[in-house]
Amino acid sequence: MKLIILFIFIGSSFAYRNDLSVHSLALGSQSTLYWRVDPTKEIIQFEIHYTGEESGWFAVGFSNRGELTPADYCVLWIDWHLKVHFQDAWANNKGIIEVDSYQDCNDFAWKRSILSNMTKFSFTRKLDTCDERDYIIERGTTHIVWSKGTGPLSNLNGLNIITNAISSGMSRTELLRTVSHKRPEFPSDTWKYQLLADHVNVPQVETTYWCRVEKLPEALRQKHHVLQFGPVIQPGNEHLVHHMEVFHCAGASEANIPLYNGPCDAADRPQATQICKKVLAAWAMGADAFVYPKEAGLSVGGKSFNQYIMLEVHYNNPERIKNKVDSSGIEFYFTKTLRKYDAGVIELGLEYTDKMAIPPHQELFELSGHCVTECTGIGLPQNGIYVFGSQLHTHLTGTTVRTRHIRNGNELSPLNYDNHYSTHFQEIRLLPEPVHILPGDSLITTCTYNTMERNNVTLGGFAISDEMCVNYIHYYPNTRLEVCKSAISDDALRTYFRYMREWENQDTDFDTAVSKSYQNIEWTKLRVAALHDLYQAAPLGMQCNGSDGSRLPGLWNNVAATQVKLPLAPPARDCHLINQ
Ligand SMILES: *[C@@H]1O[C@H](CO)[C@@H](O)[C@H](O)[C@H]1NC(C)=O
Ligand SMILES: *[C@@H]1O[C@H](CO)[C@@H](O)[C@H](O)[C@H]1NC(C)=O
Ligand SMILES: *[C@@H]1O[C@H](CO)[C@@H](O)[C@H](O)[C@H]1NC(C)=O
Fold it and tell me: What cellular-component terms does GO give this entry (predicted)?
């Protein structure tokens, strides 16, 4: 790491005392991307290291959802006089490269080590270059695409990023990480605990979920705070460990859970371990450690806390590399010197129910879950809560997630959003700064789904083929509200199914079967539009529940959805006319 950092920032104009600001991501097994965000200049410094022959070309860039084409690239290539070039270009649908008229891959530097057979290069890129051919780097998930091949080339125009490549790929990361929270001081009694996979022979298949159930150390009979958790990746396996979660086996405090170490879906996995599903920590490839703000820690341990936890590691092995043994996992920092507040989690979004559905063959269909004024009004403390982290969650067809924040009808800055969301890149993200939510505020979580590949309706529910729309917000001080989610009200859906039956001749009936009714509808454009309008206008059934699982007092059926009187204007772009 040290060498790299030296190289990257030779000649750079801003000081770098804090190593935490340099992030890295494996691009396949032979290349690594390093980067650092400069929020004031709104640029990112990138650096790539790859092994390969000297005259080869290397393209790195961005695309909407990870497709290699069409995509925006910065390309290093070498001509037959061994002169090095670096150009901003665009690959069309077929993969054919065309150099951009505006060149926005700047500050290029290059170095080659014959000894290690490695090329290193660095460049900077503005977040928004104002060139319509360039990708706009936004908050949330960014899909980094890369491709490399042999040279020399005579010209970059005409190169085919797919057919001329010897290897290529895609990695997801949260590129725009601002480290505005400085890591707070940790008390001297802070200790580390690692929950690691134990010499797992990574199978030669694309996807493996590995589970390990362990008992927490005895010290956690006493309540502790988690101050930080983060990845411990076995060196050399950076490209294999895709994401990891640690779950609490939230059963009775004295219940013994059988220890387990094997594939999560194995037939012999003890049934009792299925209880291990309350998320304590979540990390995904490309993410850094999660550091709690100085005011709060995550409470673990104590008399009423079951002592078992489970690590789940998702191995992603598309190159089907063999003989890889892995002992990666998650590392926690614990202290018994408790901070002022316990951190808490509230679930926002849609209730897990088949009352919500997404018709098939939709490129973009929206569902929204509301956390209404009435619920935050009684569920949050008078001084409100501070939300510092957020984990967005949908299943396979989710493509964007956003939580809007409304106060007295006025829309404030969004609580969190991801316009390039992927179910395969879920982590608990620190918000750029904590968001203050007051009692009476409402939060609308909207997800969009793409069901172009599906022939049947997609229903809300728990199965991976069902859909969800959830934002788990992490906040302090911990309060009793834990679930603030909605679905269409029973009455509204009953009326809609009756209308579909009587006027549209569809086989629908709310009282016999909701799922079946949705499945029985023959989806036409008009019926899809009608369903969309119904979801926009219909009253809600609210789930406004406390942490003990009970409903907070109130009338939660047929609640009106939040009205946004003054929506937020889209963010302004700082673009001069010349580049447009
Ligand atoms: C450099 O790396 C490439 C790709 O891994 C390999 O094909 C080539 O033989 C290597 N060259 C040397 C001199 O090691
Ligand atoms: C999809 O719809 C077809 C036709 O209605 C049905 O036969 C099939 O079982 C459905 N598939 C699923 C996964 O529900
Ligand atoms: C909320 O509480 C009600 C009543 O206890 C329960 O039926 C419902 O399942 C709870 N919802 C959630 C999401 O926990």
Answer: extracellular space; secretory granule membrane
